[in-house]
Amino acid sequence: MQNSLKVAKWEMKRNLKNKTFVIGLFITPALFILFFFLSSLFSSDSDDTENMTVYINEDLGIFEEIEALNAEYDFGWDLHSTDVLKTEVTEVNEAYTAYLFINEQSLEENRIATYTSDESDPLFPGQLQALTAPLQMLKAKGSGLNEHEINQLMEPIVFVEGTNQGAAVGEDNTVTALENSWESLLPGIFAGVILLSITFTGMAIFQSASQEKKDKIAEIILSSLTPSELMQGKIIGYFVLGLIQVAVFVTILLPFIIWQTDIPILEYLFVPRTILFVFIALLSYLMFAAIFVGVGATMSDVSSAGNLQGFVMMLPFVPFVIAGPVISNPDGVIATVSTYIPFTAPSVLLMRLSLLDSWPWLEIVISLVVIVLSIFIFMKIAGKIFKVGILLYGKNATPKEIWKWIRI
Prior knowledge:
Number of helices: 18
Helix content: 55-70%
Strand order of the largest sheet: 2-1-3-4
Order of helices and strands: HHEHEEHEHHHEEHHHHHHHHHHH
Oligomer: single chain
Shape: elongated
């Protein structure tokens, strides 16, 4: 183990002294912030439109209520009450101007006459929909309904997929939902960032093993330690490098995201579920790192990777293919089965736990057992491949040769 730690320390020092690695470490969050400001700049240019001047002719006494809605939703309307009749308005020549005519007849017909200038705020038609609720309330009161009946009538109807496991049903047969979706999503997103960061860093093991073979320094290294110690040292070293990368990302991006949003991110992150999510992400790294280091040892040159090697490098991204069905139905067959497949289990498990209100603990335990057993098996297989492959020069190993090494 001591030799493995020496290899890990050497890998860390070598990469941290590499200008490309250090620049990439800081340029990724910097680019994220740059793109955010660029998108904000373009969106602010597109949103730099003049406020609408809205003239309202109404005889129902709701002008003050419309003013309150304008202030609440920050529409920016310049509201005016007017006596201009609908028959007097043929066209609106003033830019960013609109006329609304609201009376009892228009409520009965459910049609509010609206006249808008050709040049107007493109968001204005959508903003008008905010007036629907108070107008419907006014119409209901005119029908003689009491407040309780009006509230029942105005209560929105929600369609919820029936399930016996995925939702908690109360005594009143209503489905209980999370108070805030961010509370469940943020720990999963945070763990997903860790998973991707250390997986991408772990993929560097692939290049490291191949490069040492190409430079013919593997024989020198193996003269003072065993192939297993070298492999374990690489896995540990790049694991720490991945954590360093995550720490840099979090240190730079988290304060920026907190500054730009009103979501209590820290409050939602420092919860017990985050520990489980991060643990799953770390297990994922160990599993894929074993595969990468084993495959890297079978290649004579990264640029000459064969179909088998290329396919193996795509394994961490397989869950993205089934992300749609998993997100749309976290309790579905695809999501459940994918939880038990080693290559998809970590990512799919993170997605499911982030979306489900009630966790299927038996499925979670089975999935974690599958991942841990996969790590043990892949480490054993990778050790056998690495032991022979690291000293194989001249050509990439064929599947037949790799199978032969595994059986030794």
